[in-house]
Amino acid sequence: MISPDDWAPVGGMRLESNALKAVRETSANVVVTAGPGAGKTELLAQRADFLFRTGATPYPKRILAISFKVDAARNLQSRVRLRSGTQYAARFDSFTFHAFAKRLIDNYRPALTGQNALNADYRIDAAMRIQHQQITFDDLVPLALEILEKNDYARGALRQTYSHVFMDEFQDATTAQYAFLKQAFAGTGVQLIGVGDTKQRIMGFADALEGVMATFSKDFAATELQLYQNFRSKPRLRRMQNRMILEMDPSSASSDKELEGEEGILKVLRVDTDEQEAAAVTEMISEWLDEGVPPREITVLARQQPHLITSVLGEHLTAAGISYRNEQQSQDLTAEPAAALIFNFLRVVADDGRPKEYSDLVRVVTRGGIEEVDGVLDSNLRTLLRDIRLTVRTADFDTSDYASWSPIIKSFLKFVTRPALNALSPSYQQGSRLNDVIKDAASAFKRELAVDCDPVAALDRLSEEDSVRILTVHKCKGMEFEKVIVFGVEPQFFWGSAVKAEFFVAISRAKAELVLTTAHHRTKPDGASGRWREESPAYEELLRYTDES
After folding, report:
1. Do 236 and 265 touch, CB atoms closer than 8 A?
2. N or C: which end of the chain has fewer CB within 10 A?
3. Distance of CA 256 to the CA centre of its chain
């Protein structure tokens, strides 16, 4: 343990003065407003390190981080592990709001009574609720709030477990989520910090509470701090962002001197047809990959329905042999430990030279690491993998047919055992969540295998590391990429009262190169609604922000 005065940012990081104030605060709640690229995730990771190393979070107290997306929760957990090491990271709980609410429900389910009472084996469905048997994702937070309102033990457990609570992307908190936070922590000794960007408040459709950061500041007497610097984007891209900030929030705009420099690439691709657009973008991505840009550093962003808007692009990418991952279909599977286990197993038996995947597989199956493996379990795992690899490589095994892979997946999961699978995540220990994840993982592999009958390519498309990612604007929040393509900057896709905020989120993901595309003619794909217009003019009001003059 060190004194607060002796603590310095880890990893050689430099923090602007307000960020340092937020990190070092030991008595007051804090609310931080920060623009894109200001280092919100880094700020929270540094604060966790400060709290652990100075004893402000004394053992066995823990830190709770609540995010609004699986990717953001996972990224923050990884950053804390990077900055502080595994020992401190083990006391850092990073959840989405839904995941944390489910954990509370699973632990205190008997507190729910009447029409909200749940059976022990309750299920979660995307849309349908069945009394006592099945709830929806939207039910999770209200039910968790009901538990906190009714159960003194649940409230006490939270307050005794956590010394500090972090809220990431806090501008997107809904009314129910904010009520949950107040019920859990208001008026207690637990210290809270909320970090967000009001210019990125694009979750209004999900009942995001208007002015939640100002409300939090008042209700929790929080110290208000603003971060101004964008450390992510090159100067040319920052200048485009600044032109939008000058209209949306002039007081937060940067000075010309702060934005000097010619680094960064900004392009507008105008073509006549979606075929021309797809061909040009595919060629662009191919050149980036040939230059050595990692696939994970390239993304294509669509305002909505990327499986429709980028359907022609998907055909071109597949024809060019470029692996891509459509997040509309893949959802958050890679963040699920059971799905990651299945995919790593398939990579190890289907491909050669996968040491990282093998190491991850051993670590999960043995609940340790290669150097800590129990001899019998290690021997049995090696034998299983060797036998399956031999089977997969026989002439009788059809690698292009999912029916060949299904019994192999089942035999592997049987070897791992159900208790070991349940131990992978608290959410697997009650209800049908584990079965649902296994089913979704198998379905995703089957779907991708049908694209080109190549199991390795199918698994690459399911990987965040080996694939170009196709994301919605809402999904990309909190992420950053070297190369960003915003697809279809046209009024039929970018519309609504929050259109500028959404567009700002999209363009501010780019670190080095930003490409905006528009195609005058877009053939209506199967599954598109009646609102689809084949004649699709460019959204000139948004594109004008690229004009330096």
Report:
1. yes
2. C
3. 33
Radius of gyration (C-alpha) of the chain in whole angstroms? 24
Residue 453: Cβ within 10 Å count: 13
> CA 504 to CA 488: how far, in whole Å?
15
**Model confidence pLDDT, tens digit, residues 363-377:** 777 664 333 344 555
CA dihedral 377, 380, 386, 389 (to 10 degrees): -80
Say if residues 229 and 16 touch (Cβ distance below 8 Å). Answer: yes
**Look-up: residue for tokens 């692996």?**
323
The whole-number pLDDT of residue 525 equals 92
Q: How many residues does the chain have?
A: 549
The tokens describing 403, both together, are: 């029916």
pTM: 0.68
Per-residue pLDDT of 35-73, as tens digits, reads: 777 888 999 999 999 999 999 999 999 999 999 877 788
What residues contact 93, with CB distance under 8 A and at least 6 apart? 62, 63, 64, 65, 162
Token pair for residue 481?
A: 């990429």
What gap in Å lies between CA 434 and CA 460, rounded to an integer? 23
Both tokens assigned to 301: 């962003």
Select the highest-mean-pLDDT range: 26-40, 171-185, 322-336, 468-482: 171-185
Q: Comparing C-alpha atoms, which of 209, 130, 211 is closest to residue 177?
A: 209
How sure is the predictor about 381, in pLDDT bands with cuts at 50, 70 and 90?
Answer: confident
- Termini Cα distance of the chain: 54
